[in-house]
Design a protein that fits this description.
GO terms for molecular function: calcium ion binding. InterPro entries: Cadherin-like_dom, Cadherin-like_sf, Cadherin_CS, Cadherin_N, Protocadherin/Cadherin-CA. One of its GO terms (biological process) is homophilic cell adhesion via plasma membrane adhesion molecules. By secondary structure, this protein is mainly beta. The protein has 6 domains: 94 residues; 97 residues; 103 residues; 98 residues; 103 residues; 103 residues. The relative contact order is 0.06.
């Protein structure tokens, strides 16, 4: 917003200037929380803000003449900055002139000379009175005390200044009156009217009766600023109708309080030729025009003079580069900032005028920002698209200001904008499925596997913690078997594992960041238990109590190869640990029997003798593990006469085909089938997850 107020220059400090809260449409109570502050564009502080009332107050007494001099308008520019959201408001305060200065002449007494042969209509220029006030409060008119010979004439100069001149109305006679005393009064247009006076003494002289005359008396010259020193501005055209010394003219600058002598530092005047040249660089930005008064005086006795007035108006050239002012910058900015979020407030100034002072701002098109014009010479830098800290953690923003002059002048300013992270990325595992192996009976606390996840965010948003989820896929909570280090993702056993009880575990692992809200992802680790030879073979048949023997009768005339009985054993382990072999323990006695190593069948090895005593065999069943485990059974074989016994009945088993004799082979096939089915089930479960 842009506010405009006006205040007379004679107001006391603390006087209200304007109701900021009302004009901005802001609640007075929010001014403190929004950190309303006043920024002056000048070097001095003239105003203050009453935050409790939301009113702009005078901080010091204003003097319009000291602030703005002779400028027709006097404005002070302020900036109001409010935060949450960040806003910039421009305040322009017009300082109104009051009639606090009376007109004053440079000298209280003016002495003029005029020849007695001067013709009616001869003009005597007078010093211009000075009144620092402006407008209607400045010099309004002049008055001259009544005189028989003289009257007052007022001319208006090119810059609007009224110049009094005494005009000879009636021929003079020095012999009658040699000196005339008059009073010149300057009146301003204020209410009440103020005035100043000067005494005018006119001496009537004899002889030289033609003054130098300027042609034209008031002229104007246009000159480019920054012309080389010594450039000819103009040559005055002055004529004097007298001859000899009375017509020989010398030139000099005429300096008065109303026409300060500053121009004498910039221009030189040749006293003989009347040429005016530059003697220092001219700057349009310092002053756009100069009023030069020249006195042309002859060498007559008494000398006569004429006055030339020259107005030098400078033409602005593009000699100033734009200036960029970074008023405010909000850094860092959240990466989830919505388009249109204000990032910075930028002001631009160019001391040139016209097109040379018209400035436009530019930034690179590929940046996700754009410039929005707030009001004249003030811009807002806002977001123009989504920001992603993971792609760009910050931006070097270069703002380029280019004016419209010819040739163009440009300047640029670079500042860094940091993008603050928000938790917009969930952690990711390096693999959603992993496989680990561990030996059964491993000690509690044994390391099983280490999962790894990454998070592209930063800070607490990228701080990860791991945990195991109980998803009910096992009968017993998975946390009773495994635990995980929440910092590094290493999985450890909680207790010893038994291959014969559980051959594989699905361990669902969750990783979660420390952002707000927290984001997470999961992965499954398939932990396969490796079998260990921790189970001895178990003899299924014959089943006899420990320390007892199994008694088996056979025909006394059984021939070699006769099947006596079959030892059936199983092993809870798997693989090589469950491969069983059968053998007879060595004895001192040579036995007429043998045991098949793989099938466990006991057969007659050699013909039996008649009336042979019973034989005691110790059959040992041993697995293939390391170390190997074994079990044994005692069998007493008694030959009997005329004993014909069906082996199937002796086993108390239904008759089976010869293929059923190799029971171990079927057990191996069954275990392989179960393993294949389990693998298929795991694959289906993984696909479903």
């Amino acid at each position: 917003a842009q506010l405009r107020y006006s205040v007379p220059e004679d107001r006391e400090p603390g006087s209200p200037v304007g109701d900021l809260a009302k004009d901005l449409g802001v609640d007075v109570r929010s001014l403190v929380t929004r950190n309303l502050r006043l920024v002056s564009e000048g070097g001095q502080r003239h105003f203050q803000v009453n935050l409790a009332a939301g009113v702009l107050l005078l901080d010091s007494r204003l003097d319009r003449e000291a602030l703005c001099g002779q400028n027709p308008t006097c404005s002070l520019h302020l900036q109001l900055v409010m935060e949450n959201p960040l806003q910039l408001h421009r305040v322009e305060v017009d300082v109104l002139d009051v009639n606090d200065n009376a007109p004053q002449f440079p000298k209280p007494e003016v002495v003029l000379e005029i020849t007695e042969v001067a013709n009616p209509g001869t003009r005597l220029p007078l010093e211009v009175a000075e009144d620092p006030d402006m407008g209607s409060n400045s010099i309004s008119t002049y008055e001259l005390s009544p005189s028989e010979h003289f009257a007052l004439s007022i001319n208006v100069r090119g810059d609007g200044v009224k110049m009094p001149e005494i005009v000879l109305e009636k021929a003079l006679d020095r012999e009658k009156v040699a000196v005339h005393h008059l009073t010149l009064t300057a009146l301003d247009g204020g209410n009440p009217v103020k005035s100043g006076t000067a005494k005018v003494t006119i001496h009537v002289l004899d002889a030289n009766d033609n003054p130098p005359v300027c042609d034209p008396p008031i002229s104007k010259v246009h000159l480019e600023e920054n012309v080389p020193v010594g450039t000819l501005v103009t040559k005055l055209n002055v004529t004097d109708l007298d001859e000899g010394p009375n017509g020989d003219v010398e030139y000099s600058f005429k300096i008065s309080n109303n026409s300060p002598g500053k121009f004498t530092k910039l221009f030189s005047l040749d006293p003989r030729t009347g040429e005016i040249r530059t003697k220092a660089p001219l700057d349009y930005e310092e002053s756009s025009a100069y009023e030069i008064a020249v006195r042309a005086r002859d060498k007559g006795s008494p000398a006569m003079e004429g006055h030339c007035h020259l107005r030098v108006e400078l033409i602005d050239i593009n000699d100033n580069s734009p200036e960029i002012v970074l008023t405010s910058l909000s850094s860092p900015v959240q990466e989830d900032a919505t388009p249109g979020t204000v990032i910075a407030l930028i002001g631009v100034k160019d001391s040139d005028s016209g097109d040379n002072g018209q400035v436009r701002l530019q930034i690179a098109k590929e940046l996700p920002f754009k410039l929005v014009s707030s009001f004249k010479e003030h811009f807002s830098l806002v977001t123009n698209g989504p920001l992603d800290r993971e792609k760009a953690s910050g931006y070097n923003i270069t703002v380029r200001a280019v004016d419209s002059g010819s040739p163009q002048r440009a300047t640029q300013k670079t500042f860094y904008l940091r993008i603050a992270d928000v938790n917009d990325n969930a952690p990711n595992f390096s693999s959603p499925f992993d496989t680990a192996h561990i030996q059964e009976n491993a000690l509690p606390g044994t390391s099983v596997f280490s999962v790894s996840a990454s998070d592209p965010d930063e800070g607490s948003n990228a701080k990860l913690s791991y945990s195991i989820l109980d998803n009910g896929m096992q009968d017993v909570p998975i946390s009773t078997y495994f635990r995980i280090d929440q910092d590094n993702g290493t999985i450890y056993t909680v207790r010893a594992l038994d291959y014969e009880q559980d051959k594989v575990f699905q361990v669902p692992v969750e990783v979660k960041d420390a952002g707000s809200p927290a984001l997470s992802s999961t992965a499954v680790v398939h932990v396969f238990i490796l079998d260990e030879n921790d189970n001895a073979p178990t003899i299924v048949y014959p089943s006899v109590p420990k320390g007892s023997a199994f008694h088996q009768t056979i025909p006394a005339l059984a021939e070699p190869g006769y099947l006596v009985t079959k030892i059936v054993a199983v092993d809870a382990d798997s693989g090589h640990n469950a491969w069983l072999s059968y053998q007879l323990q060595e004895t001192t006695e040579v036995l007429p029997f043998q045991v098949e190593r793989r099938s466990g069948e006991i057969r007659v090895a050699q013909a039996l003798k008649e009336s042979e005593d019973p034989h005691r065999l110790v059959v040992e069943v041993r697995d293939n593990g390391t170390p190997s485990l074994s079990a044994s059974v005692v069998i007493v074989i008694s030959p009997e006469e005329n004993s014909v016994q069906d082996f199937a009945k002796s086993l108390d088993l239904p008759k089976s085909s010869p293929k059923d004799t190799n029971l171990t082979l079927y057990l191996v096939v069954s275990l392989v089938s179960i393993s294949l089915v389990s693998c298929v089930m795991f694959a289906l479960a993984a696909a479903r997850c």
